[in-house]
């Protein structure tokens, strides 16, 4: 088929616009001629695409890029910090958080609104989310920047095509259509909180640029973000990272999911606290985890033994992951991050014992760099990445919001 | 940096040559003008790159592509079945196999040379491999085609950078440098047999075009090939797929690796045969597995119970994989393929019970389409793909073998 139809030309422009922006993001300061050389596109094509990216504030032209004295053509192209921002939202069990992420990855206007969302009707929670989103948009307005898209982190199974939350047991949700509830003004991306926490870790902090790791995060439940080749895997349906339901003992106790010996049931925060004899009436877990950390610091034998048992179980599950995927690092997030100093020993021993290639590829046991902010920041990053991966669609949407 | 250096120009040509060939592979029959439109490259650039691909027999020009009457420019470009072939080698515990794979994926000259390689000095085995390779090259010569590269499948842990076999316990190998032993004439890619079996399944048969699955294959050991987004994952070091050492019972018996309750120790072929009371003195396992299949067909209670227990254990390990990666299918290969009809039931029940998203994403339990040929065919495919992914390097190597 010869691409003479407008659809064909528009596909080519979409592809080439993305290619040009990707080149600028990869090598900030590149000139238009440099982009042409790197992409193989004609210089005139590159110039017209760059003009559109500059007009949409996705790219800035900085000072002279080289001393060639050829004026604008010689200026350097850089991602614009005042371009469209990603708006991150996290629907936690006991809070709603928001933040803005600019095209250079900077985080702004981080806000956490406490409130128990368990058992509350989803419509009520989503109304609160809508208020938080409006407030974050107003923040963006005051900063004179556009919001280009929404990312929403939830503690549950999310269908990656529709964005529907199939199940979020700790919220009591099933089949909640978040994109429909948040309106059609902006694109809405919904994903599991551990996946988005991994997106956040990937984009900033000590793990930035790390190509392969598994983040295992304990909130009320236990989830993982699987990062391979610098990207978080979402799987065929969007249901990756359910490490909380990996079996660590087929004769173990029955989990809320109905199966025996799941990691979450045997080494999740509730199990650790119960095993250590620390009372945890309900969420939030901050206070009982702080209590547990205090007992650990005071060398309380029951607390130390409970966390050691949890470390072994976490090690059994993570050794399976490392045997399967050959990742060089596991990262502890959420409640596990707070217990890292006591978990890392027994966990590391189990990895050494069970990873068949351990002598050639020791596994690092790291701690989350972003802490409690990881999921909401990752949600903003994910929304931003959707724009940066397909800038032409963003530009056309801004030019003609009805389209 | 302005790309004025020859290195810069050569990088661009390398990139563009690969892009042009990828387009022809993706849409066979495309014209030169069609390639230009699809890639955004100038028509003159495309024509010169296509000329080089045709000269190297990587691409053929077929009859008129359309009725535009513009002669050669209108002919269709297709991958050439007489272009450079990939030479696949499988070093099995009790055989060495070879085959040739042409650029359209066709398999030729499949040969299996029986011989017990266990405990034999690696140099002796590699001398036999070298003889098999020379014989396969002679086959290629008689067919009038070039061999572009070697792929070698081994039952062990392979360092993906150096191609050194770190450990192949069932061969008794450690630190065996296959690329050095097979000479410098051709590029040599070495990988684990389960990984290459997955490459083979991906390229042909019923699973061709399937984007995501995990192949779990039982030979003497148990290994997996993890396929995500249509590519076999090799991991950071090359050590992926070691599902045989995923823990299915922390209180289980001690495995040869030193850990307790590994899948291979509890549900590998040797364990199943022992549990069923079938005598298996040594490899090859063909005869005892045929004996077991006979007993299963005759509804022997001990055999049925043993395979059911193995199915449950395989289900525990694979439910963990599906929970983590959200793949829609698991594929049974090697000895497991022969037992598929009896394993699939208990395995499927365990997946239903343990996969947290099972109600929205049932997991198919499939059987390998290629059977015993999968690894050697995949080895040839992998060698071929290296050429197709970087045709410029192949073309330069053929033009100047000393470079």
Automatic annotation (TrEMBL), chains A, B:
It comes from the Bacteria. InterPro entries: ATPase_NBD (IPR043129), HTH_MarR-typ (IPR000835), ROK (IPR000600), WH-like_DNA-bd_sf (IPR036388), WH_DNA-bd_sf (IPR036390). Pfam families: MarR_2, ROK. One of its GO terms (molecular function) is DNA-binding transcription factor activity. Residues 17-61 form the HTH marR-type domain. Residues 63-84 are annotated as: Disordered. Belongs to the ROK (NagC/XylR) family. PANTHER family: BIFUNCTIONAL UDP-N-ACETYLGLUCOSAMINE 2-EPIMERASE_N-ACETYLMANNOSAMINE KINASE, ROK (REPRESSOR, ORF, KINASE) FAMILY. This is Xylose repressor. The lineage of its organism: Bacteria, Bacillati, Actinomycetota, Actinomycetes, Pseudonocardiales.
């Amino acid at each position: 088929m010869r691409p003479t139809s407008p659809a064909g030309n528009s596909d080519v422009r979409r592809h080439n616009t993305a290619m040009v922006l990707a080149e600028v993001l990869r090598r900030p300061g590149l000139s238009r001629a440099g982009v042409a050389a790197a992409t193989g596109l004609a210089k005139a094509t590159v110039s017209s695409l760059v003009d559109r990216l500059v007009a949409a504030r996705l790219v800035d032209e900085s000072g002279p890029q080289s001393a060639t004295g050829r004026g604008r053509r010689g200026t350097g192209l850089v991602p614009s910090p005042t371009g469209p921002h990603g708006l991150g939202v996290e629907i936690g069990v006991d809070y709603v958080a928001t933040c803005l992420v600019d095209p250079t990855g900077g985080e702004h206007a981080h806000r956490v609104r406490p409130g128990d969302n368990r058992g509350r009707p989803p419509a009520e929670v989503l109304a609160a989310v809508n208020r938080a989103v409006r407030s974050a948009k107003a923040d963006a307005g005051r900063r004179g920047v556009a919001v280009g898209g929404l990312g929403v982190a939830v503690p549950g199974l999310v269908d990656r095509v529709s964005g529907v939350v199939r199940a979020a047991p700790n919220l009591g949700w099933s089949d909640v259509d978040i994109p429909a509830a948040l309106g059609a003004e902006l694109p809405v991306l919904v994903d599991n909180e551990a996946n988005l926490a991994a997106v956040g870790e990937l984009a900033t902090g000590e793990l930035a640029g790390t190509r392969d790791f598994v983040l295992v995060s304990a909130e009320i439940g236990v989830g993982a973000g699987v990062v391979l080749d610098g990207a978080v895997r979402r799987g065929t349906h969007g249901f990756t990272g359910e490490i909380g339901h990996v079996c660590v003992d087929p004769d173990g106790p029955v989990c809320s999911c109905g199966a025996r010996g799941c990691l979450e049931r045997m080494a999740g925060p509730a199990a650790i606290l119960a095993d250590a004899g620390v009372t945890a009436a309900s969420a939030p877990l901050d206070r009982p985890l702080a209590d547990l950390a205090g007992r650990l610091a005071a060398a309380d034998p029951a607390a130390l033994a409970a966390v050691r048992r949890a470390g072994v179980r976490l090690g059994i599950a993570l050794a399976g992951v490392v045997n399967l995927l050959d990742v060089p690092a596991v990262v502890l997030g959420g409640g596990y991050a707070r217990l890292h100093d006591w978990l890392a020993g027994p966990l590391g021993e189990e990895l050494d014992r069970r990873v068949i290639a351990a002598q050639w590829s020791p596994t690092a046991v790291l701690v989350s760099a972003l802490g409690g902010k990881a999921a909401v920041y990752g949600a903003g990053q994910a929304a931003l990445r959707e724009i940066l991966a397909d800038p032409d669609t963003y530009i056309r949407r801004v030019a003609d919001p009805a389209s």
